[in-house]
Amino acid sequence: MKRTPPLIAITLIIAAIVQAPLLSAAAPAEVSVSGEQFVDLLVKEDFPAAVAQFDSTMKNVLPEAKLKETWQSLKAQAGTFQKRVGATASKLAGYDVVLVTCQFERTTLDAKVVFNSQKQIAGLFFVPSHAAAGASGPPPYAQTNSFHEKEFTVGSGPWQLPGTLTLPNTPGRPLPVLVLVHGSGPNDRDESVGANKPFRDLAWGLATKGIAVLRYEKRTREHAAKFMAAGLGKFTVQQETIDDALSAVAQLRALDGINPKRIFVLGHSLGGMVVPRIGRADRQITGLIILAGATRPLEDVIIEQTRYLLSLRGKPSAEDESKVAEIQSAAAKVKALTAADATSSKTLLGAPPAYWLDLRENDPLVAVKTLAQPLLILQGERDYQVTQVDFNRWKEALGDQPTVTYKLYPKLNHLFISGEAKSTPDEYEQPSHVAEAVIEDIAAWIRER
User: Fold this and answer.
1) Which neighbouring-strand residues pair with 184?
2) What are the DSSP calls for 35-63, one per residue?
3) Which CATH fold would you assign to the domain 6-132?
4) Is 46 among the catalytic positions?
5) What's 144-298+334-448's CATH class?
6) Predicted model pTM
7) Is residue 348 a contact partner of residue 330, using CB atoms and an 8 Å limit?
8) Which of 201, 244, 383, 390 is catalytic?
9) 383 is catalytic
């Protein structure tokens, strides 16, 4: 069974509506049939009939043209739809939530279809298949009796986020702490991809070595419906990611048992791309860590990722080239955006113009040169999502400054998990762990600070 290719999570392709938290209770069996029938409409590309089932909010946020773009973008990455392999339904806060498991050519996803009390569709999301359970257990380097965890709420008011603070059992001295910042997509606090939980591995491995770690649900996961209600035209990486990281740092600085002069921030993938902005906004942060941080325009990275995945099947077919051309066309529209588009609610490659303009106006290689904090930049050589090209661009921008440390790992992929030969989406199907060398290097670097 295949799981989500990381490309889907990394590129914001599926910016659809309601991300439900834990499911509870039971839903009527007939609602499962309704969910399956809706997926069948997508497969037939009968988008007018699909949109007709939406409630008024969904019709505004995801009209026919946007639904078509979302479905085609999904197929460009996941491959041709093959079949439905089951559906389950549950109730959540008055909504019926149906998970329709869909097998595509290169992965298996759940279409999460949310029905309101009038049987209208109030939410749609594509997520890693629940059938792909069996997440990896504790990493071998984590001594689970050497730390404990407690709930920690990031932020306040309507955007507060549930999180987990992992604390070493080290009495008598204030602890250094590391804040983990997700890559793109509606990530959970563990940054789960398939069976793997890289943020949990980092938290448990570093806590074993005496470093506290905070991880939390991403805003686009915890508050997806609010994002839609607020209007996609206002959606930027500042609201999606940066604001919450800064709130977490400020809260930890005032927390008993934490050393306010030893607070570090680690960003992975898109999180790594915006780490310089986080460090620039709060110059009291002690040090910054970039794991596979992109440096190039994200729309260019999306094209590169798509070509790589299609190349795994051999010589590209005419259909493959057509898929690439579709994404290239959307990327060209991203590059053509102007300030006049900033309030538009249309989506390009799964995100609104304001999002793309924000990224364009904040070049990470420009921002990183303004920082005084020490930097640790890590890269897996087998990473096909954010590649060694980006790693080298960090090095070119920063040079051999004594405050910057670089680490390149020949066998690691985008999740910093070890493997052999070319990296493929299938790797993410296998339960594994962040390499121990990464834990060791991060811990040593923090101790040196």
Assistant:
1) none
2) HHHHHHHHHTT-HHHHHTTB-HHHHHHS-
3) Nuclear Transport Factor 2; Chain: A, (3.10.450)
4) no
5) alpha beta
6) 0.76
7) yes
8) 383
9) yes
